[in-house]
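Researcher: For the annotation table, I need C-alpha cells for Purine nucleoside phosphorylase. Please keep the output clean. Sequence:
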Amino acid sequence: MLEKIQETAAFLKAKMQTHPETAIILGTGLGSLVHEITDKYEISYKDIPNFPLSTVEGHSGKLIFGKLGGKDILAMQGRFHFYEGYSMQQVTFPVRVMRELGIKTLFVSNAAGGMNPDFEIGDLMIITDHINLFPEHPLRGKNIDYGPRFPDMSEAYSKELIAKALEIAKERGIKVQQGVYVGTQGPTFETPAEYKMFHILGGDAVGMSTVPEVIVANHCGIKVFGVSVITDLGVEGKIVEVSHEEVQKAADAAQPRMTTIMRELINRA
C-alpha cells in the first residue's frame, strides 16, 4: 500500500507546478467552486497510477491544481464511495496521497438527509462531529506510519476552522446549521425508521461519504473542515420519496452559499 501511495505521489509531484497545502474534495454542493479556481491545470484520474475511477453521476474524475482565495490548492473533482464497490483503502487512497504531497488542511462537502427537525431542505450544516456506521474501517489492517495505530478522534473536525466559518457566515448573512453527520454505506436512501434511529443516536444528518476520508485525514495529521447540504428531510411528517436528481437539484441551489464560505475560509485558513 505505502509503495503505491508513494508511486502515485511521485507521479503527481513530477507534473505539479505549484505546492498546495490546502485540498478540497468537491463533493455535492461544491461543483461550482471549480469555476473560481485560477491558474489551473488538471490531471485526469484515468492518467494517475493506482487511482480508482469515479462512477457516480454528477461526479467528474480529475485532480485540479490552481489558486483559490490567493492560495495554491488541490481539488478532487469526484470522490470514491464504498457503495460503488471500492475497498476502504481505495476510497481513502487520495487522502494518503495528499499527505505525501504536503497537504495540511482538507475541506470536504457532501449531500445529506436532515434528521434534525429544525433543518430545512437547502440548509448548510457545518459538521461538528460524526458517527461512523460503515461496516469496514478505513484504518483496518497494517498501520501506515502516517499516524498512531489508535488515532485520537476527539477533534475530527477542526474547531478553529468551524469558528472561522461561523464568523464568515455571520458577516455574509448566510444561514448555517451545525450538527453531527452519520456516515452509512448506502446506496439506498434511509427508511423512516432508520432516520428516527440515527437521530436518537445523536445524528443531525446522514450521508454515504466523508467519514472514511475524515478518519484517514486525521490519522495523517491533516486538519479537516466539512459541510453538508441538506438535500432531503428524514423528519417525521416531512419525509417524501427522494431521487438522486432531486438531491442534485437541492445541492445546486445551495452552491453559491457554500462556495462563498469555502472561498473565504481558504483565504483565512
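Researcher: And a one-line annotation?
Model: The chain has one domain: 1-268.
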